[in-house]
Amino acid sequence: MPQDEPTPANVVVMHCHDLGRFLGCYGNETVATPHLDALAADGVRFDRAFTTAPQCSPSRASLFTGRYPHVNGVLGLTHQDFAWDLHPGERHLGGLLRDQGYRSVLLGVQHESRARADEDLADRLGFDHVDTTSTRAEPVSQAAVDQLGQLVEGDRPFYLQVGFLEPHRMAGDRDEPGVMGFLGNHVVPDDSLGVAIPPYLLDTPSARTELAELQGAVRHMDAAAGRVLAELDRLGAADNTIMIFTTDHGLALPRAKCSLYDPGLEVALIIRYPDGGWTGGQVRDAMVSHVDLLPTLLAATGGTAGDDVHGRSFLPLLDGEEHTRREEIFGEMTYHDYYDPRRCVRTERHKLIANFTSAPAFMDPSQGWMRRCRPKVQTEGLASYHPSLELYDLAADPAELTNLVDDPEQAGIVAELSAKLAEWMVQTKDPLVDGAVTSPLHTKTMNALLRA
């Protein structure tokens, strides 16, 4: 490389399950996250970053392809018989950066492509090396530390993708019958700073118990992130590394994960790159979407995103330059535990949600028969059912508890947002436009019947 050319920036993306913005640096005073808070204090924090889907696989598929789930093929979970997968032609950020000359490594959680052997996964996504042997935060962080020593000594810039399981719900010996909590057999509950109940949930003793578990899992994950950050510093590689921390979607609590309300779509997004000036504890309040991260990183590393990418680079926001702000965020869910197709458009002030089945009002992500957290909105029976449309005034009602869709004074807003949502669905060739979407399990089961 000629001496006058700058050294390409390394890229590290650390992500975890089910976090939302549940960090101290986002104003959550009862959760202990000193390492990620320190990263935010030394980087750029995005206060209004959103995922495209409130569930594990579709959200990550968008994050790493820059394309909406209903386009890239991952309309539901990718593991076991859920079996959704990226379409054959989809390109992953790891492979795109490898094409630019980066050594590309994936460690820990991988949920954006159907589960395969590590060698097959590396070939499918375009990585030089994949290790999904463990997904728990502590061993994954140790694997990242070991990899960083090799990567920093290499003769190529590197892309390192590090995925942590925590704070996903994990079955453990301390769970009560019918409950899946956040502890597994290795996490300690944490109420050392108190417990705060989110505004969309009822404040009950069982909710406080569950939130203390969640806070312990987040603290555990934060410690693992801290080990990776400390190793970058020790190796002298932090200044020339674009360090990104984010999560897939919101907390695994009712009306958050598996819902299109803001608690399901909101995500932490922290980026630091000292050599690029992305430092100093800056805060950006513009709305950004996970689909925007891939084109941003490609632009920052000298690459370009194709015309088929749905996101747009927010590099000017990082550089402190003029940037045309997003006017809307789009979100979606099709399959998770069951078929529950929904789409939404969010502007600065309003949210419109379109529901395409009469499923319960929201899908509960508690993963057990016994629910310790209960939502404030609970009308008829155990669970009310979807209305066709929901409209929320996010300024007057940030918890999205009052549906205004039948308010005559809101008819103009409903019409405007309905048109925006329909146009987005048509332009992106959303399969819901033509009717119901069939799952891979449907195909597998039908084939089994026909063979019998």
What labels would you give this structure?
alpha/beta; Sulfatase; hydrolase; 12 helices; 29% helix; 452 residues; single chain; 8-stranded mixed sheet; Arylsulfatase A-like enzyme; Arylsulfatase, C-terminal domain; Sulfatase_N; globular; 4-stranded antiparallel sheet; Alkaline Phosphatase, subunit A
If you had to describe this structure to a student in words, what would you say it looks like?
By secondary structure, the chain is an alpha/beta fold. It has two domains: 10-319, Alkaline Phosphatase, subunit A; 329-447, Arylsulfatase, C-terminal domain (2-Layer Sandwich). It is built from twelve helices and 15 strands. The strands form three sheets. An eight-stranded mixed beta sheet has the order 5-4-6-1-7-9-2-10, sandwiched between helices. The protein has a four-stranded antiparallel beta sheet with strand order 12-13-14-15, covered by helices on one side. A three-stranded mixed beta sheet has the order 8-3-11. Strand 12 and strand 13 (339-346) form a beta hairpin. Helix 1 (34-41) packs across helix 7 and helix 6 packs parallel to helix 7 (205-234). The longest helix has 30 residues, at 205-234. The radius of gyration is 21 Å and the shape is globular. The termini are far apart.
